[in-house]
């Protein structure tokens, strides 16, 4: 017989958007009882759990708790630990993952909704800053993708010349290519080994990781489009503390996957929601796939909502770490 979390994960994998709010309330009432960190936070706020009857009433746990506490439900036995990036001396976030297979299944399903089957692509990953440290969730996800994709898929560290040669070889064979990379490494490659990816997918995960000066997103994308001969740049949005990912659409906005909802708060008042479209606010995320940890996260990102299912990321709040995926200043 499935326990509650296994049954909930099965629901998430088969859900559609109309299921979201009932599942979010189910997750809230479960985690308010079984996640001691979240329960203590709700108690500190003076929240009566039984008074929460709509998704808009649910409080969000500040993401900093993933640095100072093990944010887990009481009987979870973790299979994996994902750790955020950080400069020397910084305390990093840790997300303990209960079910790695579910993490992989969800990532594959979200990807396939946007791009189709992994087996149709050769996935080339240029992720030096992630590969140089342990326990990066992005490396775990892409490693699974590489194993499910074409036989020439693989990771590249600093061997950009070899990567350029592989792209030429695959282009001659008329293979479908996805080149996914951290922004500073893609910029460096576009300068040192400019090569055409026309007709293929170039995806950046954001961030200079202290390797180059921060640049506005439009400037970076223009440089990458010129360097790789593509008409548009794709983007991925994720973070250590999440299980779900979001991908950009034709307009450059991120599309909320079926398992995630983005809600905004006033920047100077974390308990006041932003109710207007296209008004900037702090990004709160409901990630139903975090049923083992906390589904309700108050991030340090600033964004806007575009309609009911799209959002943008504008940057990070003052005094927050420069880290995570796709956090270039706009």
Can you lay out the helices and strands and say which pair or pack?
Layout: H1 4-14, H2 20-34, H3 36-45, E1 61-62, H4 65-68, E2 80-83, E3 94-97, H5 100-115, E4 122-126, H6 128-131, H7 137-148, E5 154-156, H8 160-172, E6 177-181, H9 183-192, E7 201-204, H10 217-228, E8 234-237, E9 246-248, E10 254-255, E11 260-266, E12 269-273, E13 281-287, E14 296-306, E15 310-316
Parallel strand pairs: 1-14, 4-5, 4-6, 6-7, 7-8
Antiparallel strand pairs: 2-3, 8-9, 9-10, 10-15, 11-12, 11-13, 13-14, 14-15
Helix pairs in contact: 2-3, 9-10
Distance between the termini: 49 Å
CATH topology of the largest domain: Rossmann fold
User: What is the structural class?
Assistant: alpha/beta
- Give the CATH class of the largest domain: Alpha Beta
H/E series? HHHEHEEHEHHEHEHEHEEEEEEEE
Strand segment count: 15
The number of domains is: 2
**Largest sheet: number of strands, sense, barrel closure:** 13 strands, mixed
Describe this entry's structure for a reader.
- By secondary structure, the chain is of the alpha/beta class.
- It has 2 domains: 4-75 and 260-316, no CATH class; 101-237, Rossmann fold (3-Layer(aba) Sandwich), CATH 3.40.50.
- The chain is built from 10 helices and 15 strands.
- It has helices at residues 4-14, 20-34, 36-45, 65-68, 100-115, 128-131, 137-148, 160-172, 183-192, 217-228; strands spanning 61-62, 80-83, 94-97, 122-126, 154-156, 177-181, 201-204, 234-237, 246-248, 254-255, 260-266, 269-273, 281-287, 296-306, 310-316.
- The strands form 2 sheets. Strands 1, 4, 5, 6, 7, 8, 9, 10, 11, 12, 13, 14 and 15 form a 13-stranded mixed β-sheet that branches. Strands 2-3 form a two-stranded antiparallel sheet.
- β9 (246-248) and β10 form a beta hairpin.
- α2 (20-34) packs across α3 (36-45) and α9 runs parallel beside α10.
- The N and C termini lie far apart (49 Å).
């Amino acid at each position: 017989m499935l326990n509650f979390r296994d049954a909930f994960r099965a629901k998430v994998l088969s859900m559609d958007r109309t299921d979201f709010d009932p599942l979010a309330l189910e997750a809230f009432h479960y985690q308010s009882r079984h996640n001691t960190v979240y329960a203590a936070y709700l108690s500190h706020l003076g929240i009566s759990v039984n008074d929460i009857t709509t998704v808009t009433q649910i409080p969000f746990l500040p993401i900093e708790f993933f640095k100072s506490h093990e944010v887990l439900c009481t009987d979870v036995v973790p299979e994996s630990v994902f750790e955020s990036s950080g400069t020397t001396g910084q305390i990093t976030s840790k997300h303990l993952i209960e079910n790695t297979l579910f993490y992989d299944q969800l990532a594959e399903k979200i990807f396939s909704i946007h791009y189709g089957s992994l087996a149709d692509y050769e996935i080339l990953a240029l992720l030096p800053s992630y590969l140089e440290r342990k326990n990066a969730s992005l490396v775990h996800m892409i490693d699974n993708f590489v194993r499910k994709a074409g036989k020439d898929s693989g990771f590249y560290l600093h061997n950009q010349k070899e990567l350029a040669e592989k792209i030429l070889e695959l282009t001659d064979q008329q293979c479908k290519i996805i080149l996914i990379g951290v922004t500073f490494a893609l910029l460096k490659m576009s300068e040192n080994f400019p090569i055409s990816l026309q007709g293929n997918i170039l995806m950046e995960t954001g961030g200079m990781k202290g390797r180059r000066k921060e640049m506005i997103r439009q400037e970076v994308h223009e440089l990458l489009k010129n360097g790789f001969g593509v008409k548009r740049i794709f983007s991925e949005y994720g973070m250590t503390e999440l299980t779900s990912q979001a991908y950009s659409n034709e307009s450059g906005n991120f599309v909320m996957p079926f398992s995630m909802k983005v809600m905004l708060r006033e920047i100077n008042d974390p308990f006041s929601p932003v109710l207007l479209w296209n008004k900037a606010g702090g990004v709160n995320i409901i990630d139903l796939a975090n049923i083992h940890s906390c589904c309700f996260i108050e991030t340090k990102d600033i964004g806007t909502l575009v309609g009911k299912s799209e959002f943008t990321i504008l940057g990070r709040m003052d005094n927050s770490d420069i880290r995570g995926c796709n956090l270039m200043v706009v």
